[in-house]
Design goal:
Layout lengths: L12 H6 L8 H20 L6 H23 L14 H11 L4 H7 L2 H8 L7 H12 L13 H18 L1
Helix pairs in contact: 2-3, 2-8, 3-5, 3-8, 7-8
């Protein structure tokens, strides 16, 4: 048995490893996860520390990714059961890859054209303000933010997270 030399109690490795286990989730579970990631982003914003601003924006962008993927799974229910893309047509394989291998928000949005109408119905007089916000988020956010040497300010993160919150309610 290995010896723990970290002082105090030995860490419970089994429970930590569980969060890294790859699992297939249903759309309803994805919506729950989106709520949790939004809570993480909001917590980072609430810290008021500029050095947490990038993390808040990064985490908030995942909220949109997760919600778009849950909608994609609902639109194409076979995505919830297909484990391997090898036997799929090239167009279905592209959808599978978009859902399980990509972080392409703009690509996800292209597959979900009905979202524009959903957002339009939420606005008074058919305004497309929410649609413009979502398109802007999808165009700006990238998973590569996790590697960015650039830093943003908490004021920008607050605005981004506020926009995510507004869109999140419509996409649920």
């Amino acid at each position: 048995m290995p010896v723990w030399r970290g002082g105090g109690r030995e860490p419970n490795i089994g429970s930590v490893a569980g969060i890294f286990t790859k699992v297939r989730l249903r759309p309803s579970q994805l919506r729950t996860i989106a709520d949790r990631r939004f809570g993480d982003a909001q917590c980072l914003c609430d810290s008021r520390q500029n050095e947490r601003a990038n993390g808040a924006m990064y985490m908030a962008g995942f909220v949109i990714e997760i919600l778009l993927k849950s909608r994609l799974m609902e639109k194409y229910p076979w995505l919830q059961t297909t484990r391997s893309p090898e036997k799929l047509s090239s167009s279905d394989r592209a959808l599978w890859s978009l859902c399980y291998r990509s972080h392409d928000l703009a690509g996800l949005l292209e597959q979900l054209s009905e979202i524009r109408q959903i957002l339009k119905l939420r606005e008074p007089h058919g305004s497309e303000r929410l649609w413009r916000i979502l398109k802007s988020i999808c165009a700006r956010w990238s998973v590569f933010a996790r590697y960015s040497p650039q830093s943003t300010r908490m004021t920008e993160a607050d605005e981004f997270v506020r926009q995510i919150k507004e869109i999140k309610e419509c996409l649920r």
